[in-house]
Design a protein that fits this description.
165 residues; alpha+beta; 3-stranded antiparallel sheet; 10 strands
Length: 165
C-alpha cells in the first residue's frame, strides 16, 4: 500500500498521522547560499523540486518516500536554529499533520516534551513588523513560550544555554 492509499484509511479526525526522527529529515532542510548574478545579493536555495510557487521534498516515512510542501514556517525554523529562543528546548522529531481528509499533509517540528516549534515575530505584524523567511524579524519559539509572549514587543530573547532542556 502506498502513502496516498494509506492516508485515505487514517482517521480524518486525527491531526497527527505520523512521526519522523529529526535526523531523518533535517539534512533535507538545509539551504545552500547562492548569489544572484544580476543583483549580487545572496539568497537561500532550498532543496526539493520547484513546482509553481512551492518547493516539495521527498521525505522518508514508513519505508516510502512522500512529498511534503516546504512551508515558510518550516524554512524559518530550520534557518533560525530549530531551538526555542526563550526556554532553549530543541526540536527532536517531525510530525506529519493535517487538518482534515482533504487538507494537505504538512511537516511540523516538535520538542522532546511535545511542544511544537513556531515562528514568533520580534516586532509583531500588528506593530508593523515584517513577515518573511529571510527576515531578521522572526525567531523560533515553542508554542507555550510564544503564547506567553503574545503580541507584546519584548525584543530579542537572549540566547539560552544549549544544555538547558
Amino acid at each position: 500500500m502506498n502513502f496516498k492509499e494509506w492516508l485515505l484509511e487514517v482517521d480524518p479526525n486525527n491531526e497527527v498521522i505520523g512521526e519522523i526522527p529529526y535526523k531523518d529529515v533535517a539534512h533535507l532542510l538545509t539551504p545552500t547560499q547562492k548569489v544572484n548574478p544580476y543583483t549580487q545579493k545572496t539568497y537561500d536555495d532550498w532543496p526539493g523540486d520547484q513546482r509553481g510557487a512551492g518547493r516539495y521534498l521527498k521525505v522518508p516515512f514508513n519505508g516510502d518516500q512522500i512529498e511534503i510542501k516546504l512551508t515558510k514556517q518550516l524554512k524559518s525554523i530550520m534557518r533560525n536554529g530549530s531551538r526555542c529562543v526563550k526556554c532553549g528546548r530543541a526540536g527532536t522529531r517531525f510530525k506529519l499533520l493535517r487538518n482534515g481528509i482533504h487538507s494537505p499533509v504538512r511537516l511540523a517540528l516538535f520538542t522532546q516534551d511535545d511542544r511544537q516549534l513556531t515562528i514568533d515575530h520580534i516586532v509583531p505584524r500588528g506593530h508593523g513588523g515584517v513577515s518573511s523567511v529571510n527576515s531578521d524579524n522572526v525567531q523560533v519559539m515553542c508554542e507555550p513560550c510564544n503564547a506567553e509572549k503574545g503580541s507584546a514587543y519584548v525584543g530579542i530573547w537572549p540566547t539560552p544555554d544549549p544544555d538547558m532542556q
